[in-house]
Design brief:
Bound molecules: 1-deoxynojirimycin
Number of helices: 22
Number of strands: 28
CATH topology of one domain: Rossmann fold
CATH class of one domain: Alpha Beta
Structural class: alpha/beta
Largest sheet: 6 strands, mixed
Distance between the termini: 62 Å
Shape: globular
Helix content: 25-40%
CATH architecture of one domain: 3-Layer(aba) Sandwich
Length: 739
C-alpha cells in the first residue's frame, strides 16, 4: 500500500503533491506501468468453476503475481477476496488492487423477486431499495462490482432471459434501469457499501431470433435506436460505471466486436466514460460467429471495437501485447482501457485501502438482516400480479374450514428464489408458500398434496391430490416452472405450464366443478394460460418471488395485502403469436374493430390478435374508476408543455394501490409509429372511497423519435392520448403538436 502512495505522489523522483483528482492520479500511476502491466488490468479470470461456462484460467495466484490480472469474477467472501487481494497488493511491483465482480442480479443473500417480477411493481423506489440492499450484502462479502442491471428489453417469452429484465417497454425499462443503478452505486462510490453497476448486455440481446439464447439479431437502426438502446442510454445518464458487451451479433456484426455500437454510439454519442467488459468469453466467440479467423484476430477485433476488459477469455492476456507491438492494436486503446479500469478502482477507494470491502464483522452482521427480509416480503407482494379473479375467489377467508394446497411448488424453498440468485441459500432460508400460509391457518385447516413434479411424467400422485381437493372447501394450486427453466440458456418453444401439471389442474376441476380454485404461478416468463383461464377462478402470478416469497404470497391470498402489481410484458394466447407486444405497428391492413376476422386483414385464421393478458394489466381486490379526463390545451408548442389529468376513484371496498398509465399515439409521421406508447405512470395509494387527480406533464421531449435519417426529433401533427389502467383501451382524446 505504502508502495502505491509513494508512486502516486513521487513521479520520476519529483514530488507531484496530493493530486487534485482521480484522473491525475491514474495518469501518474500509468506513467509507471509497462505495457504488459496495463494489459493485466484488462484481464479478468474466474475464482472457481462457474455454472455459466467453462473456466478458462485457473492459475489465478500466478497471474496476479505476474501483474497479468486486474479483476476477478466469482470470488467473494472476506476470506476468499483477502487472500487474492493480498497477492495483488503485496506481491506485485505496483500493488494495484484487484476488482471483484459477481452476478448480484436480484439480491445477494436476501433474494428479491426475479427482475421481471420486480418490474411488475412499477415501483422505482422499491427497485432502488432492493438493489441498495443487494449492494449492502454483496459489498459486505468483499464484492466491488455487480453485473447488473440487465436492461435488455425483450418481447420474447421463449427467451429464458426475459426473466432478468424489466419487460417489453422502452419508457418503463429506462426508468427502472436508472433506479437499479442508483441503488447499486448509491451517491458515493467511495463508501464501502456501494458497488459498481454494469448495464448489460449491450445490445439487442433480447431480440434473439425465435427466442433462442445467443442467437442472431437483425434489426433496422431505427428500431435499435427507438426501442433497444434507450434503457442503456438511461443507465449512462444515471451514471452507470460499467457496460457489458453481449453475445449476440447485430446485423452481422457481433456486439463484442461492434465498433459502431461500442465506440460510435456509446463513447462518441453518449460520452460514456466508464469501462466495458466483455460477456463470458464473448470475444472468443467472435471466431465461431465467423467474424474473426482465430483467437488472436478476435483479441484484435475486441480491443479495437472498444471492449476494455476480457471476461475469462484469456485473449487479452495472451495476445494483446504482441498485437500492440505489431501495430495491429493502437497502444492508445490499451491505455484508454487501463485508465478507465484504474479510475473505477480509485473511485471505489481501493487505492486508499484495498481491504476496505473486506471486513469480518460486516460480513457476519449484514446478511439477511430482519429489515432486509421485511423489505423483501413487501416487495414480493407488490411484484405479484393478480391476473384473474372470477367469482371473487380471492382473497381467501381465514375461517374456511379446509383448504387444499396442491402442486410441486407448495413446499418449495429451492426454486422460489429463482435463477441468478447470487448467494441466496436454496435451503433453510427461503419461506415457502406452505410456511407462509401456516401463519394464517391452523394445521387442521390445511390439506396438502404435491400431486406431481414440475417436469416428470409420473401421475402417481394425482389420486391423493384429487382426493384432498374433494375434501376441501377451497383449492389453491401452486405450480409453474423450475428456476432453471428461465435465465441464461433456458429458452423454450412451448410456453405452457410444464410437465403434467396442466393435466392435474384439469382433473382437479373435473372433480370439483363448483369449488373455487386459485392457481398461484411461479415462473420466469409469460406463459400460455389459455386453457387454465377457463379451468380456474383466480390466477395469482408471483414469478419467483424470493426469500420471503411464501410469506408475501400468503399475505396476498388472505387479503392482508391487496395485490397491486401489473404486467410489464404481454401474456400471449399461444406461442404462435410471439412476438406480441402492446406497442406494435398498425400495418396497412389493421383488423376492423367490429369484424376482427375479416379476410385479407392482418389477422390469424385460428386465434384472435388480442393478448391473453395485456401489458399493464393487473387486478386488485378493490376496483378503480377513471373519470373526468382533462387536457390543459389542445395544442403543444415546441417549447411548451401541456398537462393531462384524470380522476381515479377507489370504488370498491378495500384500500389499494393503482398504477395509472399515460399513453400516446403519434398518428402520422415520416416513419410509422407504434399504436400506443407508454409515456408516464404513477402509483397511487387510495383508501376505499377516496378519489385523487393524477396529472401528467407532456413536452415535445416525450414525443421525440429517430426518423429514417436517424435524426431525433418530434414531428408536428395529431397525437392521441389516454390515461388508463392498462394498455388494453381505445383512444378517445387528441392534441396537436405545432410546428
Ligand atoms: C454470462 C451472462 O450472460 C452474464 O449475464 C453474466 O454476467 C456473466 N456470464 C458472468 O457470470
Amino acid at each position: 500500500m505504502r508502495k502505491i502512495i509513494f508512486f502516486i505522489l513521487f513521479i520520476n523522483g519529483s514530488f507531484i503533491g496530493f493530486a487534485q483528482n482521480y484522473e491525475v492520479k491514474v495518469d501518474s500511476l500509468m506513467n509507471l506501468m509497462t505495457l504488459q502491466e496495463k494489459i493485466g488490468q484488462t484481464v479478468m479470470y474466474s475464482g472457481r468453476w462457474d455454472q455459466t461456462g467453462p473456466i478458462v484460467g485457473t492459475d489465478n495466484g500466478k497471474y496476479i503475481r505476474e501483474g497479468n490480472l486486474g479483476a476477478m469474477l466469482n470470488a467473494f467472501s472476506v476470506k476468499g477476496t483477502r487472500d487474492l487481494q493480498k497477492i495483488a497488493v503485496e506481491e506485485t511491483r505496483l500493488g494495484i488492487p484487484l476488482l471483484f465482480g459477481y452476478d448480484v442480479i436480484h439480491g445477494h443473500r436476501t433474494i428479491f423477486p426475479i427482475n421481471l417480477g420486480l418490474s411488475a411493481s412499477w415501483d422505482l423506489k422499491m427497485v432502488e431499495e432492493s438493489s441498495r440492499i443487494a449492494a449492502e450484502e454483496a459489498s459486505a462479502e468483499g464484492l466491488h462490482w455487480t453485473f447488473a442491471p440487465m436492461v435488455d428489453l425483450s418481447r420474447e417469452p421463449r427467451w429464458g432471459r426475459i426473466s432478468e429484465g424489466a419487460g417489453e417497454d422502452v419508457y418503463l425499462g429506462s426508468e427502472i434501469a436508472k433506479a437499479y443503478v442508483k441503488g447499486f452505486q448509491g451517491d458515493d462510490l467511495s463508501k464501502p457499501n456501494t458497488i459498481l453497476a454494469c448495464a448489460k448486455h449491450y445490445v439487442a440481446y433480447g431480440a434473439a431470433q425465435a427466442g433462442r439464447d445467443y442467437h442472431t439479431v437483425n434489426m433496422g437502426e431505427g428500431e435499435l435506436r427507438n426501442v433497444y438502446l434507450p434503457p442503456f442510454k438511461a443507465a449512462v445518464d444515471a451514471g452507470v460505471e460499467t457496460f457489458m458487451s453481449a453475445f449476440n451479433e447485430l446485423n452481422g456484426v457481433p456486439t463484442s466486436g461492434n465498433k459502431f455500437t461500442l465506440r460510435d454510439i456509446l463513447r462518441e454519442e453518449w460520452g460514456f466514460e466508464g469501462f466495458v467488459v466483455s460477456d463470458y468469453t464473448s470475444i472468443n466467440e467472435l471466431v465461431p460467429h465467423g467474424f474473426a479467423k482465430d483467437s488472436i484476430d478476435a483479441a484484435r477485433i475486441g480491443m479495437n471495437a472498444g471492449v476494455d476488459m476480457d471476461m475469462v477469455g484469456k485473449l487479452y492476456h495472451h495476445f494483446l501485447e504482441d498485437l500492440v507491438k505489431e501495430g495491429k492494436v493502437p497502444e492508445a486503446y490499451v491505455n484508454d482501457a487501463c485508465r478507465r479500469i484504474l479510475l473505477a478502482k480509485f473511485k471505489l477507494g481501493l487505492f486508499d485501502n484495498p481491504y476496505r470491502y473486506i471486513n469480518e464483522e460486516r460480513e457476519n452482521t449484514t446478511k439477511y438482516k430482519p429489515e432486509f427480509l421485511d423489505k423483501a416480503r413487501e416487495i414480493a407482494a407488490a411484484s405479484s400480479v393478480l391476473l384473474q379473479n372470477k367469482n371473487e375467489a380471492l382473497p381467501l377467508s381465514k375461517d374456511i374450514k379446509k383448504i387444499a394446497f396442491i402442486g410441486p411448488l407448495v413446499k418449495d424453498e429451492y426454486d422460489i428464489i429463482g435463477n441468478w440468485a447470487a448467494k441466496g441459500d436454496r435451503k433453510g432460508k427461503a419461506v415457502s408458500v406452505y410456511e407462509g400460509i401456516s401463519e394464517y391457518l391452523n394445521p387442521n385447516q390445511i390439506l396438502y398434496a404435491k400431486g406431481c413434479e414440475i417436469l416428470k411424467d409420473d401421475d402417481s400422485g394425482f389420486e391423493e391430490a384429487i382426493s384432498i381437493s374433494e375434501q376441501a372447501d377451497a383449492i389453491v394450486l401452486v405450480m409453474g416452472e423450475g428456476h432453471h427453466m428461465s435465465g441464461e440458456a433456458a429458452s423454450r418453444t412451448n410456453l405452457k405450464i410444464p410437465g403434467i401439471q396442466p393435466e392435474l389442474i384439469k382433473k382437479i376441476r373435473e372433480a370439483n366443478p363448483n369449488k373455487k380454485i386459485t392457481l398461484v404461478l411461479m415462473n420466469g416468463r409469460p406463459l400460455n394460460l389459455s386453457n387454465e383461464v377457463d379451468l380456474v377462478d383466480a390466477i395469482l402470478e408471483i414469478w419467483f418471488p424470493g426469500t420471503m416469497g411464501g410469506a408475501a404470497t400468503a399475505d396476498l391470498l388472505f387479503g392482508e395485502v391487496n395485490p397491486s402489481g401489473k404486467l410489464t410484458v404481454t401474456f400471449p394466447r399461444n406461442v404462435g403469436q410471439v412476438p406480441i407486444y402492446y406497442n406494435m405497428k398498425n400495418t396497412g391492413r389493421p383488423i376492423p374493430e367490429d369484424n376482427p376476422k375479416e379476410d385479407y386483414k392482418s389477422n390469424y385464421i385460428d386465434v384472435p390478435n388480442t393478448t391473453l393478458f395485456a401489458f399493464g394489466h393487473g387486478l386488485s381486490y378493490t376496483t378503480f374508476t377513471y373519470s373526468d379526463f382533462r387536457i390543459s390545451s389542445q395544442t403543444l408548442n415546441p417549447n411548451g408543455t401541456i398537462e393531462a389529468s384524470v380522476t381515479v376513484t377507489n370504488s370498491g371496498n378495500r384500500d389499494g394501490h393503482e398504477i395509472v398509465q399515460l399513453y400516446i399515439h403519434d398518428k402520422v409521421a415520416s416513419v410509422t409509429r407504434p399504436v400506443k406508447e407508454l409515456k408516464g405512470f404513477q402509483k397511487l395509494a387510495l383508501k376505499k372511497g377516496e378519489s385523487k387527480t393524477v396529472t401528467f406533464k407532456i413536452s415535445v421531449e416525450d414525443l421525440k423519435f429517430y426518423n429514417s435519417e436517424m435524426k431525433y426529433g418530434v414531428e408536428p401533427g395529431e397525437f392521441e392520448i389516454a390515461i388508463a389502467p392498462s394498455s388494453d383501451f381505445r383512444f378517445k382524446h387528441t392534441f396537436n403538436v405545432l410546428d
